[in-house]
Amino acid sequence: MTKGRIIKALSGFYYVKSGVDIYQCRGRGVFRKKKINPLVGDFVTFDISNPGEGYISTIETRKNELIRPPIANIDQAVILSSATMPDFSPLLLDRFLVLIESKDIEPIIFISKMDVISEDLNKNIEKYQQDYKAIGYQVELISTKKELNHLDSYFSDHVSVIAGQSGVGKSSLLNALKPSLLLKTDDISKSLGRGKHTTRHVELIEVSNGLVADTPGFSSLDFNEIELEELADCFPEMRERKENCKFRGCMHNKEPKCAVKQAVEEGEIASYRYEHYLSFYTEIQTRKPRY
Ligand code: GDP
Ligand code: ZN
């Protein structure tokens, strides 16, 4: 039995990397019977049947998994926002942050299109950068049209996915990190390549000693998987203060003597972050039951 990690899934085959070698594998029939789907990112054991070929026999328990792109054991997600076109939206950024935090994936924030903005907007974005850094997040202001070597250290030794709304530059970023990818960007009309011929192909590509999913993630931005009780834990600055709330299980909403609300009043927690918390709170509270 040999150990490895699935780095690519294509047409029923799983490509398992073990050391420097890559084996073309199929899953054992038992997976199909149990409806277990090996995923890109899975740590597996496999039996070598022929040189370079094998059968996956076991899958290690996953740390986490995403549905789109279908990838397991992700370490970090780069949330790409743009400073302009589309406008920078802290509300949308916070939505991504909550979704990523809830999956135990480490978020990193990149803000693109810094090459085309006015001085005023630049100041505005730098202010947000400070706010998010104060929470403990890493925030890089970038242009996908320029040298990106300084981003290498973010990717090394990690498995990353790139997330962000349409048009922020995800394909441009992936292309800049890995020029051989040749992903279509908005300039080369992505829609042409879409449609029924799209194969379900996911691959982890090597970028600066790390692995990055070649398909951007998080298409669904609803909070259906998030419970009200865990929402505050997806805000690090609230998570670290909850011990100081008077009531155990404080939801930092209507409760008195709430350390979170006090920190908002004292300006230690950005008021827009707290407002976003309340708006997500209402969204989760009022969501329709799923079954
Ligand atoms: P995606 O939908 O997130 O994959 O975005 P694309 O990579 O397709 O980029 C959308 C548009 O923004 C394209 O016209 C890109 O050329 C442009 N773009 C992406 N990143 C930058 C950037 O950093 N600066 C500038 N000026 N344009 C960018
Ligand atoms: Zn509280």
Automatic annotation (TrEMBL):
The keyword Transmembrane helix is annotated on this UniProt entry: no
Cofactor binding note of this UniProt entry: Binds 1 zinc ion per subunit.
Entry keyword set: Cytoplasm, GTP-binding, Hydrolase, Metal-binding, Nucleotide-binding, Ribosome biogenesis, RNA-binding, rRNA-binding, Zinc
The keyword Zinc is annotated on this UniProt entry: yes
One Pfam short name: RsgA_GTPase
Domain of life: Bacteria
Residue span, EngC GTPase domain: 72-219
Family named by the database record: Belongs to the TRAFAC class YlqF/YawG GTPase family. RsgA subfamily.
The protein's name: Small ribosomal subunit biogenesis GTPase RsgA
Organism: Virgibacillus byunsanensis
